Amino acid sequence: MTRQTADIVVLGLGAMGSATLFQLASRGADVLGIDQFYPPHEFGSSHGETRVTRLAVAEGTALAPLVKRSHEVWKELEGRTGESLFGQVGFLAVSSEPWQPGAADYVARTRAVAERSGVRHELINAVEARRRYPWLNVAEGDRVYFEPEGGYLHPERCVATQLRRATEAGARLALGTRVEAILPRGEHVEIRSDKGTIQAGRVVVSAGAWAGRLLGPHVSALLRPTREILHWYDLEPSAPAEWGRAPVYIWSYGHGAEEGFYGFPAKDGTVKLAHGEKTRAVDPDDFDRSSEEAESRAFYARSIDGRLKGLRVDASRRKTCLYTVSPDGGFVIDDWPESERVLIVSPCSGHGFKHSAAIGEAVSQRLLDGASRIDLSSFKLSRFGDRQRRIGASR
Ligand SMILES: Cc1cc2nc3c(=O)[nH]c(=O)nc-3n(C[C@H](O)[C@H](O)[C@H](O)COP(=O)(O)OP(=O)(O)OC[C@H]3O[C@@H](n4cnc5c(N)ncnc54)[C@H](O)[C@@H]3O)c2cc1C
């Protein structure tokens, strides 16, 4: 590639970029997708076999229409392609946080969103929860919420399927192409890459943990990449058989950021578990992607021991992954302050995959129709107000 043009360039083809490229190409747009790697890959935020999805997201009611629409898109895609993308096995929320005056626990917050958004759910007492899920060691007084429409997504398959559908609909791809600069030039945007220059009418920056460095100090100050770990634990031979039919689950047992975990049903004799750490800030181009057995043991001892039954602590594998954390834990979907031809699309803070299909569709509507059907105004940069200016000015 030396010099190319496109009406729209999608820069970064992970969860967000693949969904956006697919939606734009399906509507006949002249669109080019660029990625420095060959997605799906293991260097960003969209790998690791599974992602939790649920309709009542405790992160807020503004997200409910996005995840609802995403479920519809994943199912439509499954119908058209025959790919298995979405395991709708149900979702369990468990709260064993000690009571704190004025603080609603995780189940109470999830339930409030479910009720406001009309999401089907039930509350289960500890005796019933232990009967249905013998691998779940809930105690008297723990709160348990079940949502039948939750489940898990296969992130790599979602990315690959959307990219394939996009190219079938006419999208062009420039893979193994690293963008070095985005330069607004009045009537177009110039994109400089290690393979040449691209002239675009509009650009969607869905570069995940790398977005900040492409978008300058005011934006990069708000997008902090962190190192996260996924752990796989083998089942003991005596583990309850129900592990294979488990729903996905999130268990909150304290008020600190470390005091919770989430997990998936057993597959091929192993169970994947993790928690969002959000503490170890890293440079996405230069950090240690290896991980130690000791990290899995420490996580097991702190979070899993006594809560889940039938798992071996000594036989695990791990993968590292990147979050992009914003100051309020919310997403950034907004015009770049330097040019309204450039749209930033970052589902930040470790909970974006489940919303990505609908965000891709909403972004395509915004670019092609002038506005999206689902309201994206909660994701504007201006909500960071002075903080954004202050951080930018101090750099
Ligand atoms: C461990 C972990 C667990 C998670 N669990 C959940 C969950 O259970 N449920 C949920 O909903 N969400 C979850 N998330 C969050 C979700 O996966 C992310 O929000 C989502 O994957 C982010 O996608 P993205 O497209 O923004 O980033 P990415 O998938 O990282 O894509 C960015 C792409 O941009 C490319 N790129 C970057 N810079 C350049 C450049 N200069 N030139 C060319 N290409 C470039 C990269 O190569 C990459 O392919 C989890 C995330 C992690 C890390």
Which ligands does the model contain, each kind named once? Answer: flavin-adenine dinucleotide
Any idea how many domains?
Answer: 2
- The H/E string reads EHEEHEEHEHEEHEEEEHHEEEEHEEEHH
- How far from one another are the termini? 35 Å
Mean pLDDT figure: 94
Looking at the structure, the CATH topology of the largest domain is FAD/NAD(P)-binding domain
Q: Biggest β-sheet, characterized?
A: 8 strands, mixed
Low-pLDDT sequence parts: 389-395
CATH class of the largest domain: Alpha Beta
Percent strand equals: 25-35%
Care to describe what's here?
With 395 residues, this protein is of the alpha+beta class. The chain folds into two domains: 2-47 and 155-223 and 328-394, FAD/NAD(P)-binding domain (3-Layer(bba) Sandwich), CATH 3.50.50; 91-148 and 224-325, 2-Layer Sandwich (D-Amino Acid Oxidase, Chain A, domain 2). It has helices at residues 15-26, 64-81, 106-117, 126-132, 155-168, 211-215, 217-220, 293-304, 356-369, 385-394, and strands spanning 3-11, 31-35, 51-53, 86-87, 91-95, 122-124, 143-147, 151-153, 172-175, 179-185, 188-193, 196-205, 224-235, 248-252, 260-263, 270-274, 311-325, 332-336, 339-346. The strands form three sheets. Strands 1, 2, 9, 10, 11, 12, 18 and 19 form an eight-stranded mixed beta sheet that branches. An eight-stranded mixed beta sheet has the order 6-7-5-14-15-16-13-17. It has a three-stranded antiparallel beta sheet with strand order 3-8-4. Helix 1 (15-26) runs parallel beside helix 5 (155-168), helix 1 (15-26) packs across helix 9 and helix 2 crosses helix 9 (356-369). The two termini are 35 Å apart. The model is unreliable at 389-395 (pLDDT under 50). The structure holds flavin-adenine dinucleotide (FAD). Flavin-adenine dinucleotide (FAD) binds next to helix 1, strand 2, strand 3, strand 13 and strand 17. The site of flavin-adenine dinucleotide (FAD) has 39 residues, from helix 1, strand 2, strand 3, strand 13 and strand 17.
